[in-house]
Amino acid sequence: MITSAAEYEKAEQELRDLQQRLELLQRSNPIGSKGFTKAGIRKMIARLHEELAIFDGSEEARQPQLH
Amino acid sequence: MIPDFRDDGYLPEGIHIVTEAEITFRFGSGTPRRRRLIIRLRRWLELSRQTHARRFLVDGSFVTANDEPRDIDAVVLLADDFEQQVSTGLAAALELEEMLLTRRPEEIFAAEDTRDWNDWVEFFSRTREADGRRKGLLEVDL
């Protein structure tokens, strides 16, 4: 669960890294190959999107940033 | 042996090899939440053994000092013939396959070779702390 803007930024970076990893896998492994690994990455991407969305809509996200 | 937590509540960086009994004793009791999570983990381990998985990684707040962990993340390095086991209809393989391909549960992930495994280890070793520190993970000896 994301509880601060700093954690939000870290989660965004995790998301970017996973998306890049998935793209590389898709390029080097055609459809039907490495399906279980790709599914796991997609699952984690979905989870991160959900975490980011929850924080976006939270009271914490509406607080003024201190930095 | 599972090392003590650091002051920040994480395990020391690295992969710590443990037995199912050790992880159950250290992390799977204490609170009802932990007892619920260990039941889930033990089922994943059972399926992994039945399908001759090669390695099994455990992470999530379950392996921190948190009394009320939110989640337990796991990565299973599948056997080379896992797809064949699914094709032949082996019950354990079919059950594990569904877990890996869907979000039910959303905490177990597959690796199909060492490169995938290392990528997951890198990913799960991260923390969201401001200083970018890394944490330790557990590998259950199958």
Structure description:
- The complex is a heterodimer of chains A (about 70) and B (about 140).
- Chain A has about 70 residues and is mainly α.
- Chain A is built from 2 helices and no strands.
- Chain A is elongated, with a radius of gyration of 15 Å.
- Chain A starts with a helix and ends in an 11-residue tail after the last helix.
- Chain B is α/β, with parallel strands linked by helices and about 140 residues long.
- Chain B has 5 helices and 5 strands, in the order βααββααβαβ.
- Chain B has a 5-stranded mixed beta sheet with strand order 1-5-2-3-4, with helices on both faces.
- Chain B is globular.
- At the A-B interface, helix 1 and helix 2 of A face helix 4, strand 4 and helix 5 of B.
Helix content of chain B: 25-40%
Order of helices and strands of chain A: HH
Unreliable stretches of chain B: none
What does the oligomeric state look like here?
A: heterodimer
How does the SSE layout of this entry go?
The complex is a heterodimer of chains A (67) and B (142).
Chain A: H1 5-28, H2 35-56
Helix pairs in contact in A: 1-2
Chain B: E1 14-18, H1 20-27, H2 32-50, E2 55-59, E3 73-77, H3 82-87, H4 91-101, E4 108-111, H5 114-124, E5 136-140
Helix pairs in contact in B: 2-4
